[in-house]
Amino acid sequence: MDRLAGFIRKHLDLKILIVLTAGVSLVMGAVIVLSVNNQRDQMLERMTEYGHELKSLAYAGIRHPMSVGDSASVEKQLLDIRDQLHGTEIVICDFNQRIVFATHADRINGTVSQFLHSRAGVAALDQLLRTGDPALALPFEEEAQGRRYLVTIHSILNEPECHHCHGESRKVLGGLLTRHSTDSTYAAIASLRNRTIGISAVGIGALILLIYFMLARLVTRPVTELAAKAEQLAGGDLTASVPVRTTDAVGILAGAFNAMVLSIRDQIELADSLKEAIADPLFIVDRDMVVTSMNEACAQLTGYSREETEGKLTCREIFHSDICEAGCPVRRCFEDGLHVKGITTTIRTRSGAAVPIMTSASALKDAAGRIVGAVEVCKDITTVLEAERLQYVRRTAEREEEQRRYLEQRAAALLDVLAQASKGNLKARVACSGRQELMDNLAHHVNRMLESLEKLYDKISSFSRELELEVAKRTMMLRERTLLLEKANRELRELDRLKSSFLANMSHELRTPMNSIIGYTDLVLLGTYGDLNALQQDRLQKVVRNGRRLLELINDVLDLSRIEAGRLALTITRVPTVPLLDELLAAHAALAAAKGLALVRGYGALPDLAVDRGRAYQALDHLLKNAITFTERGAVIVRGYFDSARDQVVLCVVDTGPGIEPAQQERIYRAFHQPDGTLAHHEDGTGLGLAIAHRLVALHGGNLWFASTPGKGTAFHVALPAAPGTP
After folding, report:
1. What is the pLDDT of residue 663?
2. Three-class SS of residue 197?
3. How distant is the alpha carbon of residue 492 from its chain centre?
4. How far apart (Å, rounded) are the C-alpha atoms in residues 156 and 176?
5. Residue 668 burial (CB < 10 Å; 0-12/13-18/19+)?
6. Sheet containing strand 282-286, strands side by side
7. If 574 and its partner were Cys, which of 113, 184, 383, 723 is the partner (CB 3.0–4.6 Å)?
8. Cβ-based neighbour number of residue 99 at 10 Å
9. Phi, psi of 492, deg, nearest 5
10. How many Cβ atoms are within 10 Å of 267's Cβ, its own excluded?
11. pLDDT at 470 over 60
């Protein structure tokens, strides 16, 4: 298929033939279709008229016999129609669509639905029998047992002459249906269509052959000859010519081609003359950078002859320029299509000599605006560069001599000022010319240096005098402050002695009476001094409870004071961790149960601790007690794990209490501070537990930190040193 399409594309006559064939075939096909359809419509119209006439004729023949009840005459009339009109069938039905008369006796007593095969026809008959509307008595076609029929229906109205038998209540008594075969009509239409198509096909074939012969003789052959000459011209043969045989469009085209060849030949001759007339080297390249033409000046510059260059070598192979790789003017023309001029570079001739040139280039475009090549003109600028170089050397020598004399004068002036400065004259300055040059900058720097030295000398002199006065003044102040420090040390030692005395007195004066009060109150509660009523027992229990809280507060204050004074000594021993935690949980189990809290043991086997057992227990006791005190529902969990990286045992106390607000967290370890900033947020809290626990853990060399989410709870973590030898 592709080969056939390619063959057709290459032959103009076949294209024209195919187009004409398709056009004529479409027109003839349309004419045939319209003609056949028109004849079919006319024949169907005549068949419909025949059906109406047959219906009217049959109704006219049976109308009177039916009005007088003469069934035999009706049957005879229908039999005559059957015998005379082959392929025609008539049935008469009552208003219930039961067949009472028919041209074929086997239809009698049957139903109309057995006679008709079209549901639409049965429905139309039913509507006609009920309404008697003549508009419903339309003919229609149907197909039965492979044959086509034209069916007409007619209503039998209850006319006055029928009232004696059927009364006047019903408008329609029945219907008359005729069915006539249309197969012969359609066969005639098909035969006519086939004859028309055959005659048209023969005519179209003859017309196509005639057109093809005329095209081949008058169009295809001259155009093919013209195309061959055009290819000859494209190959560079300017002698190509087409003979002019006619004066029609083809002859005019051949004459125009010959004129075009002559014009091209003239233009090429003119271009060659201009190329040779240009004194500067000139060459032309194609898109592949191959030299297609060059003048004699270019051949002399490069050392390559035109015969060995044109169409064989690229411009890079004959010029060997340093801009061939990057900055080539021809390539720049190919890229943007603009002219490039004034490019200076150096080329290497065939003998290896370096020649400086100035080059310009321009793109060559075809009639469609496509770049097909470029032309470049070069100029040897060796003489120009040599003259410019000599002039530049002469001007440079003159400037250097003038600059040397000027520098010698400025250097002598600078050395004179420096000599004066070395002798102590710091007020000497170097004169500036105002030319903003190196020597002026150097003079400015020397002047600023001399000014700075002068100011520095004045400052050193003044500072030396002030320093002597300041040393004397600071010596007196140091002597006074030494005396004040000695007095302050004596006062601090006295205050420390008074504080120690106060703590000792408080330990004796407060704790001893408080223990006695608690002891005697316990004896009274036990009934040692007689029975008590319920109110007395309640009040005495409050006394015991508040006394113990006061005693605990006194102990906490004393411990905090000793810690801050650095007088709390620790006795470090190897302490088993798990028994210590079990004892702690057992001590607070009753308090947690009283509040309905779950006290969870969330730890397993743990390494031993290197701590003071009592103080470690005291720190953990404060944390656990706080967790139970401030948790209203949920659980308090005690966990533990070993941090091998730091050789520490980390114990955790986690509660589901209210948590600590972010604004309160940084003050949580202050003495007498509770999360809401008051001293009595909770009746069992003193605000000292976390402060003491934090300081006791720090004394052990451990860490205490926490993580809290307001509304969800708090987790305190205690890291204590593990005992030596822990795996």
Report:
1. 79
2. helix
3. 74
4. 7
5. middle
6. 291-294, 282-286, 371-380, 354-365, 340-348
7. 723
8. 21
9. -65, -40
10. 10
11. yes
